[in-house]
Protein backbone atom coordinates (compact mmCIF):
# COMPACT_ATOMS: atom_id res chain seq x y z
CA UNK A 1 0.00 0.00 0.00
CA UNK A 2 1.42 3.43 -0.94
CA UNK A 3 2.17 6.18 1.55
CA UNK A 4 -0.62 8.29 0.18
CA UNK A 5 -3.04 5.46 0.56
CA UNK A 6 -1.75 4.77 4.04
CA UNK A 7 -1.93 8.39 5.12
CA UNK A 8 -5.59 8.66 4.03
CA UNK A 9 -6.73 5.21 5.10
CA UNK A 10 -8.55 5.98 8.37
CA UNK A 11 -9.96 9.16 6.86
CA UNK A 12 -11.06 6.94 4.00
CA UNK A 13 -12.73 4.62 6.47
CA UNK A 14 -14.29 7.38 8.54
CA UNK A 15 -16.09 8.93 5.63
CA UNK A 16 -18.17 5.77 5.30
CA UNK A 17 -19.82 6.55 8.65
CA UNK A 18 -21.99 9.11 6.85
CA UNK A 19 -22.49 7.29 3.57
CA UNK A 20 -26.06 6.09 2.99
CA UNK A 21 -26.18 5.46 -0.75
CA UNK A 22 -23.37 3.01 -1.48
CA UNK A 23 -24.02 0.08 -3.69
CA UNK A 24 -23.53 -3.47 -2.53
CA UNK A 25 -20.23 -3.78 -4.46
CA UNK A 26 -18.88 -0.67 -2.75
CA UNK A 27 -19.34 -2.26 0.63
CA UNK A 28 -17.63 -5.47 -0.51
CA UNK A 29 -14.62 -3.45 -1.70
CA UNK A 30 -14.28 -1.49 1.51
CA UNK A 31 -14.48 -4.65 3.62
CA UNK A 32 -11.73 -6.24 1.52
CA UNK A 33 -9.61 -3.11 1.87
CA UNK A 34 -9.97 -3.14 5.66
CA UNK A 35 -9.01 -6.80 5.80
CA UNK A 36 -5.98 -6.26 3.54
CA UNK A 37 -4.63 -3.30 5.53
CA UNK A 38 -5.15 -5.07 8.83
CA UNK A 39 -2.91 -7.94 7.75
CA UNK A 40 -0.19 -6.09 5.82
CA UNK A 41 0.37 -2.79 7.68
CA UNK A 42 2.37 -2.12 10.80
CA UNK A 43 -0.01 -1.20 13.58
CA UNK A 44 2.38 1.52 14.86
CA UNK A 45 3.20 2.94 11.45
CA UNK A 46 2.30 6.65 11.40
CA UNK A 47 1.45 6.42 7.71
CA UNK A 48 -1.15 3.80 8.54
CA UNK A 49 -2.58 5.97 11.30
CA UNK A 50 -3.14 8.87 8.91
CA UNK A 51 -2.26 12.53 8.57
CA UNK A 52 -4.88 13.41 11.14
CA UNK A 53 -2.88 11.60 13.81
CA UNK A 54 -1.28 13.70 16.52
CA UNK A 55 1.84 12.85 18.51
CA UNK A 56 1.74 13.66 22.23
CA UNK A 57 4.62 14.28 24.71
CA UNK A 58 5.02 10.53 25.28
CA UNK A 59 5.38 9.76 21.59
CA UNK A 60 1.91 8.19 21.41
CA UNK A 61 -0.19 8.75 18.31
CA UNK A 62 -3.89 9.60 18.57
CA UNK A 63 -6.38 10.32 15.87
CA UNK A 64 -7.52 13.89 16.41
CA UNK A 65 -11.16 13.02 15.63
CA UNK A 66 -11.39 9.61 17.26
CA UNK A 67 -8.58 8.88 19.75
CA UNK A 68 -8.20 5.16 20.35
CA UNK A 69 -5.82 2.47 21.50
CA UNK A 70 -5.13 1.76 17.86
CA UNK A 71 -2.33 4.36 18.25
CA UNK A 72 -0.86 2.83 21.39
CA UNK A 73 2.89 2.83 22.03
CA UNK A 74 4.95 -0.32 21.89
CA UNK A 75 4.85 -0.62 25.68
CA UNK A 76 1.08 -0.34 25.69
CA UNK A 77 0.83 -2.65 22.73
CA UNK A 78 2.67 -5.35 24.57
CA UNK A 79 -0.11 -5.36 27.16
CA UNK A 80 -2.93 -5.49 24.64
CA UNK A 81 -3.26 -8.07 21.92
CA UNK A 82 -3.63 -7.01 18.32
CA UNK A 83 -7.03 -8.72 18.14
CA UNK A 84 -8.24 -6.69 21.11
CA UNK A 85 -6.95 -3.47 19.58
CA UNK A 86 -8.67 -4.25 16.32
CA UNK A 87 -11.94 -5.00 18.10
CA UNK A 88 -11.77 -1.64 19.89
CA UNK A 89 -10.94 0.12 16.64
CA UNK A 90 -13.90 -1.58 14.97
CA UNK A 91 -16.27 -0.27 17.63
CA UNK A 92 -14.96 3.28 17.20
CA UNK A 93 -15.38 3.15 13.45
CA UNK A 94 -18.46 0.97 12.97
CA UNK A 95 -21.21 2.14 10.63
CA UNK A 96 -24.59 0.82 9.60
CA UNK A 97 -24.39 -0.87 6.20
CA UNK A 98 -27.67 -2.77 6.45
CA UNK A 99 -29.27 -3.41 3.10
CA UNK A 100 -32.43 -1.46 3.96
CA UNK A 101 -30.31 1.69 3.44
CA UNK A 102 -29.34 0.69 -0.08
CA UNK A 103 -31.64 1.99 -2.83
CA UNK A 104 -30.42 -0.64 -5.30
CA UNK A 105 -30.69 -3.57 -2.92
CA UNK A 106 -33.53 -6.06 -3.09
CA UNK A 107 -36.48 -5.05 -0.86
CA UNK A 108 -36.65 -6.96 2.40
CA UNK A 109 -39.03 -9.88 2.54
CA UNK A 110 -42.14 -8.85 4.48
CA UNK A 111 -43.71 -11.63 6.40
CA UNK A 112 -47.53 -11.63 6.11
CA UNK A 113 -49.38 -10.56 9.24
CA UNK A 114 -50.49 -13.45 11.31
CA UNK A 115 -54.24 -13.92 11.29
CA UNK A 116 -55.77 -14.61 14.67
CA UNK A 117 -59.12 -16.24 15.26
CA UNK A 118 -61.35 -15.03 18.07
CA UNK A 119 -64.69 -16.54 19.01
CA UNK A 120 -67.01 -14.16 20.87
CA UNK A 121 -69.92 -15.35 22.95
CA UNK A 122 -72.83 -14.03 20.89
CA UNK A 123 -75.90 -14.75 22.99
CA UNK A 124 -77.97 -11.72 22.08
CA UNK A 125 -81.35 -10.95 23.62
CA UNK A 126 -81.28 -7.17 23.96
CA UNK A 127 -79.63 -4.13 22.40
CA UNK A 128 -77.59 -3.82 25.59
CA UNK A 129 -76.06 -7.25 24.85
CA UNK A 130 -74.66 -5.87 21.58
CA UNK A 131 -73.29 -2.81 23.36
CA UNK A 132 -71.59 -5.06 25.92
CA UNK A 133 -69.88 -7.03 23.14
CA UNK A 134 -68.49 -3.84 21.60
CA UNK A 135 -67.26 -2.49 24.94
CA UNK A 136 -65.56 -5.76 25.91
CA UNK A 137 -63.93 -6.56 22.56
CA UNK A 138 -61.57 -4.29 20.63
CA UNK A 139 -61.53 -4.73 16.87
CA UNK A 140 -58.22 -5.65 15.17
CA UNK A 141 -57.80 -5.82 11.40
CA UNK A 142 -55.57 -8.93 11.57
CA UNK A 143 -58.14 -10.89 13.55
CA UNK A 144 -60.99 -13.03 12.29
CA UNK A 145 -64.16 -12.97 14.38
CA UNK A 146 -67.24 -15.16 14.40
CA UNK A 147 -69.38 -11.98 14.25
CA UNK A 148 -69.10 -8.71 12.33
CA UNK A 149 -67.35 -6.87 15.17
CA UNK A 150 -66.15 -4.07 12.89
CA UNK A 151 -69.72 -3.12 11.95
CA UNK A 152 -70.83 -3.22 15.57
CA UNK A 153 -68.05 -0.81 16.50
CA UNK A 154 -69.20 1.51 13.69
CA UNK A 155 -72.74 1.71 15.10
CA UNK A 156 -71.88 1.73 18.81
CA UNK A 157 -73.11 5.31 19.28
CA UNK A 158 -76.38 4.56 17.48
CA UNK A 159 -76.95 1.43 19.57
CA UNK A 160 -76.45 3.48 22.73
CA UNK A 161 -78.89 6.15 21.49
CA UNK A 162 -81.47 3.47 20.72
CA UNK A 163 -80.99 1.74 24.04
CA UNK A 164 -81.23 5.04 25.94
CA UNK A 165 -84.64 5.82 24.51
CA UNK A 166 -87.15 5.57 27.32
CA UNK A 167 -89.50 2.58 27.22
CA UNK A 168 -90.04 0.89 23.82
CA UNK A 169 -88.79 -2.50 25.01
CA UNK A 170 -90.83 -4.46 22.44
CA UNK A 171 -89.77 -2.09 19.68
CA UNK A 172 -86.09 -2.43 20.60
CA UNK A 173 -86.34 -6.22 20.35
CA UNK A 174 -87.95 -5.93 16.91
CA UNK A 175 -85.21 -3.58 15.71
CA UNK A 176 -82.60 -5.96 17.13
CA UNK A 177 -84.05 -8.78 15.01
CA UNK A 178 -83.92 -6.59 11.90
CA UNK A 179 -80.35 -5.47 12.62
CA UNK A 180 -79.05 -9.01 13.16
CA UNK A 181 -80.75 -10.09 9.93
CA UNK A 182 -79.26 -7.25 7.89
CA UNK A 183 -75.78 -7.26 9.45
CA UNK A 184 -75.34 -10.91 8.43
CA UNK A 185 -76.54 -10.03 4.89
CA UNK A 186 -79.27 -12.65 5.07
CA UNK A 187 -81.52 -10.30 3.09
CA UNK A 188 -79.21 -10.58 0.08
CA UNK A 189 -79.53 -13.51 -2.28
CA UNK A 190 -78.18 -14.45 -5.68
CA UNK A 191 -78.94 -11.47 -7.93
CA UNK A 192 -81.83 -10.48 -5.66
CA UNK A 193 -82.43 -8.85 -2.30
CA UNK A 194 -85.41 -8.57 0.00
CA UNK A 195 -87.41 -5.49 0.91
CA UNK A 196 -86.13 -3.27 3.71
CA UNK A 197 -89.27 -1.12 3.87
CA UNK A 198 -90.64 -0.68 7.38
CA UNK A 199 -93.84 0.38 9.15
CA UNK A 200 -93.74 2.21 12.50
CA UNK A 201 -97.18 1.95 14.08
CA UNK A 202 -97.96 4.14 17.05
CA UNK A 203 -99.62 7.15 18.55
CA UNK A 204 -98.23 10.68 18.06
CA UNK A 205 -95.35 11.56 20.35
CA UNK A 206 -93.98 8.02 20.72
CA UNK A 207 -90.67 8.75 18.99
CA UNK A 208 -91.33 7.41 15.49
CA UNK A 209 -89.26 10.07 13.71
CA UNK A 210 -86.32 9.60 16.06
CA UNK A 211 -86.42 5.82 15.58
CA UNK A 212 -86.53 6.22 11.79
CA UNK A 213 -83.45 8.47 11.89
CA UNK A 214 -81.53 5.97 14.03
CA UNK A 215 -82.36 3.17 11.57
CA UNK A 216 -81.21 5.27 8.62
CA UNK A 217 -77.90 6.26 10.18
CA UNK A 218 -77.21 2.78 11.52
CA UNK A 219 -77.84 0.97 8.24
CA UNK A 220 -75.84 3.49 6.21
CA UNK A 221 -72.82 2.85 8.46
CA UNK A 222 -72.86 -0.92 7.98
CA UNK A 223 -73.49 -0.78 4.23
CA UNK A 224 -77.13 -1.89 4.12
CA UNK A 225 -77.83 1.59 2.73
CA UNK A 226 -75.40 3.42 0.45
CA UNK A 227 -75.73 6.84 2.09
CA UNK A 228 -77.07 8.54 5.20
CA UNK A 229 -79.77 10.44 3.28
CA UNK A 230 -82.87 10.92 5.43
CA UNK A 231 -85.81 12.65 3.79
CA UNK A 232 -88.96 13.24 5.83
CA UNK A 233 -92.13 14.05 3.87
CA UNK A 234 -95.88 14.40 4.38
CA UNK A 235 -98.86 14.51 2.03
CA UNK A 236 -98.10 18.04 0.81
CA UNK A 237 -94.64 16.97 -0.37
CA UNK A 238 -96.05 14.17 -2.56
CA UNK A 239 -99.47 15.11 -3.88
CA UNK A 240 -100.08 17.90 -6.40
CA UNK A 241 -103.30 19.63 -7.37
CA UNK A 242 -103.42 18.45 -10.97
CA UNK A 243 -103.74 15.02 -12.51
CA UNK A 244 -100.36 13.77 -13.72
CA UNK A 245 -98.42 16.20 -11.59
CA UNK A 246 -98.61 13.98 -8.50
CA UNK A 247 -96.60 11.18 -10.13
CA UNK A 248 -93.92 13.67 -11.18
CA UNK A 249 -93.78 15.19 -7.71
CA UNK A 250 -93.63 11.79 -6.00
CA UNK A 251 -90.94 10.46 -8.35
CA UNK A 252 -88.81 13.53 -7.66
CA UNK A 253 -88.97 12.89 -3.90
CA UNK A 254 -88.09 9.22 -4.42
CA UNK A 255 -85.15 10.12 -6.66
CA UNK A 256 -83.81 12.49 -4.00
CA UNK A 257 -84.02 9.71 -1.39
CA UNK A 258 -82.19 6.97 -3.30
CA UNK A 259 -79.38 5.43 -1.30
CA UNK A 260 -80.99 6.29 2.01
CA UNK A 261 -84.30 6.56 3.84
CA UNK A 262 -87.58 8.10 2.70
CA UNK A 263 -89.68 8.67 5.83
CA UNK A 264 -93.39 9.32 5.23
CA UNK A 265 -94.96 10.63 8.42
CA UNK A 266 -98.73 10.27 8.90
CA UNK A 267 -98.83 8.06 5.80
CA UNK A 268 -102.55 7.41 6.36
CA UNK A 269 -103.20 10.99 5.18
CA UNK A 270 -102.16 10.00 1.65
CA UNK A 271 -105.56 8.35 1.13
CA UNK A 272 -109.12 8.76 2.35
CA UNK A 273 -111.07 5.85 3.86
CA UNK A 274 -114.44 7.17 2.62
CA UNK A 275 -113.90 8.22 -0.96
CA UNK A 276 -111.69 7.44 -3.90
CA UNK A 277 -109.07 10.10 -4.49
CA UNK A 278 -107.42 9.95 -7.91
CA UNK A 279 -104.49 12.06 -6.71
CA UNK A 280 -103.87 9.81 -3.71
CA UNK A 281 -104.10 6.69 -5.88
CA UNK A 282 -101.63 8.18 -8.35
CA UNK A 283 -99.21 8.88 -5.49
CA UNK A 284 -99.51 5.43 -3.89
CA UNK A 285 -99.24 3.63 -7.24
CA UNK A 286 -96.01 5.53 -7.91
CA UNK A 287 -94.66 4.66 -4.45
CA UNK A 288 -95.60 0.98 -4.86
CA UNK A 289 -93.71 0.78 -8.14
CA UNK A 290 -90.64 2.45 -6.62
CA UNK A 291 -90.63 0.06 -3.65
CA UNK A 292 -89.82 -2.77 -6.04
CA UNK A 293 -87.70 -0.92 -8.58
CA UNK A 294 -85.37 0.52 -5.93
CA UNK A 295 -85.50 -2.12 -3.20
CA UNK A 296 -81.70 -2.50 -3.33
CA UNK A 297 -81.13 1.23 -3.01
CA UNK A 298 -83.98 2.60 -0.90
CA UNK A 299 -85.60 2.08 2.48
CA UNK A 300 -89.08 3.56 2.84
CA UNK A 301 -90.35 3.96 6.40
CA UNK A 302 -93.97 4.95 6.97
CA UNK A 303 -95.46 6.02 10.29
CA UNK A 304 -98.95 6.42 11.65
CA UNK A 305 -101.84 4.83 13.53
CA UNK A 306 -102.00 1.11 12.79
CA UNK A 307 -105.75 0.95 12.10
CA UNK A 308 -105.78 4.06 9.94
CA UNK A 309 -102.85 2.80 7.87
CA UNK A 310 -104.76 -0.41 7.18
CA UNK A 311 -107.94 1.46 6.20
CA UNK A 312 -106.25 4.02 3.96
CA UNK A 313 -102.65 3.49 2.86
CA UNK A 314 -102.71 -0.28 2.39
CA UNK A 315 -106.35 -0.44 1.27
CA UNK A 316 -105.83 1.97 -1.64
CA UNK A 317 -103.14 -0.23 -3.18
CA UNK A 318 -103.06 -3.85 -2.03
CA UNK A 319 -99.59 -4.32 -3.47
CA UNK A 320 -98.11 -2.10 -0.76
CA UNK A 321 -98.78 -4.54 2.06
CA UNK A 322 -96.46 -7.27 0.74
CA UNK A 323 -93.64 -4.78 0.27
CA UNK A 324 -93.60 -3.59 3.89
CA UNK A 325 -92.45 -6.81 5.52
CA UNK A 326 -91.05 -5.14 8.66
CA UNK A 327 -93.68 -3.82 11.09
CA UNK A 328 -92.75 -2.28 14.41
CA UNK A 329 -95.30 -1.28 17.01
CA UNK A 330 -94.68 1.66 19.33
CA UNK A 331 -96.26 1.00 22.71
CA UNK A 332 -97.86 3.93 24.59
CA UNK A 333 -95.81 5.38 27.45
CA UNK A 334 -96.88 4.79 31.05
CA UNK A 335 -96.77 7.49 33.72
CA UNK A 336 -93.29 6.51 34.94
CA UNK A 337 -91.88 6.69 31.42
CA UNK A 338 -93.48 10.08 30.82
CA UNK A 339 -91.86 11.38 34.01
CA UNK A 340 -88.50 10.11 32.74
CA UNK A 341 -89.08 11.77 29.37
CA UNK A 342 -89.86 15.09 31.03
CA UNK A 343 -86.78 14.92 33.27
CA UNK A 344 -84.62 13.93 30.31
CA UNK A 345 -85.79 16.96 28.32
CA UNK A 346 -85.05 19.25 31.27
CA UNK A 347 -81.48 17.96 31.61
CA UNK A 348 -80.84 17.93 27.84
CA UNK A 349 -81.60 21.66 27.75
CA UNK A 350 -79.16 22.20 30.66
CA UNK A 351 -81.90 23.06 33.11
CA UNK A 352 -82.33 21.43 36.49
CA UNK A 353 -84.76 20.92 39.36
CA UNK A 354 -84.96 22.91 42.55
CA UNK A 355 -85.93 19.75 44.45
CA UNK A 356 -86.04 16.76 42.14
CA UNK A 357 -87.54 14.53 44.84
CA UNK A 358 -90.69 16.67 44.66
CA UNK A 359 -91.24 15.53 41.05
CA UNK A 360 -92.95 12.17 41.50
CA UNK A 361 -94.57 9.64 39.20
CA UNK A 362 -97.99 10.26 40.78
CA UNK A 363 -98.02 13.79 39.39
CA UNK A 364 -97.88 12.33 35.86
CA UNK A 365 -100.18 9.41 36.63
CA UNK A 366 -102.95 11.80 37.70
CA UNK A 367 -102.71 13.57 34.34
CA UNK A 368 -102.06 10.60 32.07
CA UNK A 369 -105.39 10.91 30.24
CA UNK A 370 -104.56 14.51 29.40
CA UNK A 371 -101.12 13.75 27.96
CA UNK A 372 -102.41 11.76 24.97
CA UNK A 373 -99.55 12.78 22.71
CA UNK A 374 -96.87 11.59 25.13
CA UNK A 375 -93.48 12.96 24.06
CA UNK A 376 -94.97 15.94 22.24
CA UNK A 377 -97.01 16.84 25.31
CA UNK A 378 -93.91 16.56 27.51
CA UNK A 379 -92.19 19.02 25.17
CA UNK A 380 -95.10 21.45 25.48
CA UNK A 381 -95.28 20.99 29.25
CA UNK A 382 -91.58 21.82 29.53
CA UNK A 383 -92.05 24.97 27.43
CA UNK A 384 -94.97 26.23 29.54
CA UNK A 385 -93.10 25.31 32.73
CA UNK A 386 -90.13 27.44 31.65
CA UNK A 387 -92.46 30.37 31.01
CA UNK A 388 -93.97 30.01 34.50
CA UNK A 389 -90.48 29.74 35.97
CA UNK A 390 -89.38 32.98 34.29
CA UNK A 391 -92.28 34.82 35.93
CA UNK A 392 -91.54 33.34 39.36
CA UNK A 393 -87.82 34.15 39.50
CA UNK A 394 -87.99 37.61 37.94
CA UNK A 395 -85.93 40.03 40.06
CA UNK A 396 -84.53 37.25 42.23
CA UNK A 397 -80.96 36.00 42.62
CA UNK A 398 -79.38 34.55 39.48
CA UNK A 399 -78.76 31.31 41.37
CA UNK A 400 -82.50 30.62 41.06
CA UNK A 401 -82.42 30.59 37.26
CA UNK A 402 -83.12 27.41 35.32
CA UNK A 403 -84.07 25.46 38.45
CA UNK A 404 -87.60 24.19 38.01
CA UNK A 405 -89.87 23.83 41.02
CA UNK A 406 -93.08 21.85 41.45
CA UNK A 407 -94.97 25.16 41.45
CA UNK A 408 -93.47 25.96 38.05
CA UNK A 409 -94.77 22.64 36.73
CA UNK A 410 -98.25 23.17 38.17
CA UNK A 411 -98.46 26.63 36.60
CA UNK A 412 -97.13 25.25 33.33
CA UNK A 413 -99.72 22.48 33.39
CA UNK A 414 -102.54 25.03 33.79
CA UNK A 415 -101.26 26.89 30.73
CA UNK A 416 -101.06 23.57 28.87
CA UNK A 417 -104.74 22.88 29.66
CA UNK A 418 -105.89 26.33 28.56
CA UNK A 419 -104.14 26.06 25.20
CA UNK A 420 -105.34 22.50 24.70
CA UNK A 421 -108.97 23.45 25.41
CA UNK A 422 -108.74 26.42 23.06
CA UNK A 423 -107.39 24.24 20.28
CA UNK A 424 -110.13 21.65 20.80
CA UNK A 425 -112.85 24.32 20.68
CA UNK A 426 -111.45 25.76 17.45
CA UNK A 427 -111.41 22.30 15.85
CA UNK A 428 -115.05 21.76 16.84
CA UNK A 429 -116.14 25.11 15.37
CA UNK A 430 -114.22 24.36 12.19
CA UNK A 431 -116.11 21.07 11.67
CA UNK A 432 -119.47 22.90 11.77
CA UNK A 433 -118.66 24.54 8.44
CA UNK A 434 -117.35 21.49 6.58
Q: Can you give keywords for this protein?
A:
20 helices, 434 residues, disordered N terminus, 3 domains, alpha/beta, single chain
How does this structure look, described?
Belongs to the CbxX/CfxQ family. Keywords: ATP-binding, Nucleotide-binding. GO terms for molecular function: ATP binding; ATP hydrolysis activity. With about 425 residues, this protein is of the alpha/beta class. The chain has three domains: about 5-100, no CATH class; about 120-330, P-loop containing nucleotide triphosphate hydrolases (Rossmann fold, 3-Layer(aba) Sandwich); about 335-430. It contains 20 helices and 13 strands. The protein has helices at about 5, 10-15, 25-40, 45-50, 75-80, 80-95, 125-135, 150-155, 155-165, 170-185, 210-220, 235-240, 245-255, 280-295, 305-310, 315, 335-350, 360-365, 375-390, 405-430, and strands at about 55, 60-65, 115-120, 145, 190, 190-195, 200, 230-235, 260-265, 300-305, 325-330, 350-355, 405. A five-stranded parallel sheet has the order 8-9-10-7-11, sandwiched between helices. A two-stranded antiparallel sheet has the order 1-2. A two-stranded parallel ribbon has the order 3-4. Helix 17 (about 335-350) packs across helix 19. The relative contact order is 0.07.
